[in-house]
Every structure is written in structure tokens, then in C-alpha cells.
Amino acid sequence: MTRRGLFLFIALGIAWGIPYLFIKVAVAELDPGMVVLARSALAAILLLPLARFRHEVGPVLRRWKPMLAYTLVEIVLPWYFLSSAEQSLPSSTAGLLLAAVPLAGVGIAFLMGRPARLSGTNWAGIALGMLGVAALVGLDVAGSDLFAVAQMAVVVVGYALGPAILARWMPDLPGIGIVAVSLGATAVMYVPFVLATGGVPTAWPSTQVIVAVVVLAVVCSALAFLLMVGLIAEIGPVKATTITYVNPAVAIIAGVVVLGERVTVWTIVGFALVLLGSYLVTRHRATPADPTTDVAPEVSDAPVSRGRGEL
Q1: Would residue 4 be called left, alpha or beta, if left means φ above 0 and alpha means ψ between -120 and 50 degrees?
Q2: Model-level pTM?
Q3: How many whole angstroms separate alpha carbon 20 and alpha carbon 26?
Q4: In contact, 63 and 223? CB cutoff 8 Å
Q5: 25-55 burial by CB neighbour count: b if 16+ within 10 A, else e?
Q6: Per-residue model confidence as pLDDT tens digits over 47-88
Q7: From CA 230, how far away is CA 217, in angstroms rounded?
Q8: Which residues of 221-251 are buried (b: 16+ CB within 10 A; e: fewer)?
Q9: Pairwise CA distance, residues 235 & 103, whole Å
Q10: Phi and psi of 292, rounded to 5°?
């Protein structure tokens, strides 16, 4: 890896590893819907002018049906359920559970009629990953948080399904245009939702919450995507998927250092098993048309599946 590639890799690993920390801070005072609205709107304001300058908005809008499906499963639903789950789950646990996205990708590929040929190593990865999730949920998460775990399951499935939609129906569309339009559409959809559910704050949020939302939008969404585009251009789309294995570690460190979250033996065991399982299940399987990989390799700047962290 070149020096520039290493810098981009480290920067993206941090940008996609810290959103769980800042979501935890934001939902302490804001409704989850309001967090999603503020984050998506600010990120869209930053990315849409760039996408328009690159003439990438029109082609995306012309493919509006798969674009809408992608937006729903990749941002609209996952971001809400992730923010809602973090009202009770530690940020580090949320980050760890999302490391199971590659495992969910196997099931998504099967349901979409494009099952990959699994080797013994891949099957071992599935088994290890499931054991890791079981360790986290059954031994590291309190029973009162099981509803939050169910919400995280929705997030995992959504994050696995989004790249599959990209790879199957929109492999030729420009990445910046896809993300900019999807973020703008998310903000538009959340305006009536927040108004209807009373999610608009009645008092001005604290400084730390405002900073958290700005970081989520600017660093974890807009800037992170630009870093990802640069990383793929530097080291290629397949190698870029290894960022999946860095994000959970960053999430744990951020949660422990900043929020003082506890790390148990089962946290470490679950962390090791889920990451090892995710690595083995994707080993020697990545192909340009495989929707279970973390990128759509057909285009140089297609969004990386975050299994990841965030857009």
C-alpha cells in the first residue's frame, strides 16, 4: 500500500468507526428521527453541489426506482433503527454487531438468486460469525436490550441489501451522485416524519450534541465518502473492503475512551469471532458481480458497504 493509500485507509477507518460514538451523544437529547434528518440534510447540502458539478445527479434520478429502494434499505431505515437502538445499547456493541454485515450478505445473495459457491472455509466463517453474534447478544447484552438488538438486525440486513441493489441494478451509476441523491431524498422523507412524530426539539440542543450531529454529517458521511472514493482509486475496490475489519475496533476504543463503556470478556470473544467469521466468509469469494462483497467493483467510486461503518 502506498503512503497515500495508508493515509486514506486510516482516515476512513476512523471516519467509519466513530459514528456510533457520536450517535450515542446525539440521541441523548434528540429524537432518532431528528438525528437522521439533521445528518442527512447537512451531508446532502455538502455533496449535492459536487454531484451536480460532476453531472451525476441526472443519471441517478433517471434510475429512480432502484435508487429509491437503495435509499430506503441503506439509509432511511438503518439510520433510524441504529439511532434508536443506541438509546439503550452501548455504542461499542452497536459497532460490533454491524461487523456481521458480510455474514448477512451471504443470505442476501441466496435470496436474490445469486448464491455464491461456498468453500469449507466460508462455511466455517459463517459458523464462527454466528457464534460471535451469539456471544455478544446472549452473554454481553442485557435482556432488557433485546429489542435494541432486533433493531440492529434490521440495520445489518439493510446494510447488506444496499450494495446488492447497487451491484444488480445500478452498477454503472456514479457513486457520488448515488450518495448525494440518496441523502437528499432521505432528508426530504424525514421532514414530514419528524413533524408528525413530534421529533422537533423544544429546546436548543447542547453544544456537544450539535457538534455530534455536525461530525456525523460532515466527517462520517460526506468526507468519509470522498475518502472512500480516493481509497478505491488508490488500492482498488476489493482491497478497500478490508476497512470492514477496522471499524469495529475503532468503535470499541472510542466507546471506552470517550464514554467510559465497559468491555467484558464476551465483548472481546464476540469481537474476535465476528471479525474472523466475516473475514473467512468473504475469503476467495469476491467477484465483480457478487453482491455480498462490500463494494460494487464495476465502478471506481461506487459506495462501499459499511459493515462497515457509515456513509
Answers
A1: alpha
A2: 0.83
A3: 10
A4: no
A5: bbbebbbbbbbbbbbbbbbbebbbeebeeee
A6: 999 999 999 999 999 999 999 999 999 999 999 999 999 999
A7: 19
A8: bbbbbbbbbbbbebbebbbbbebbbbbbbbb
A9: 24
A10: -90, -5
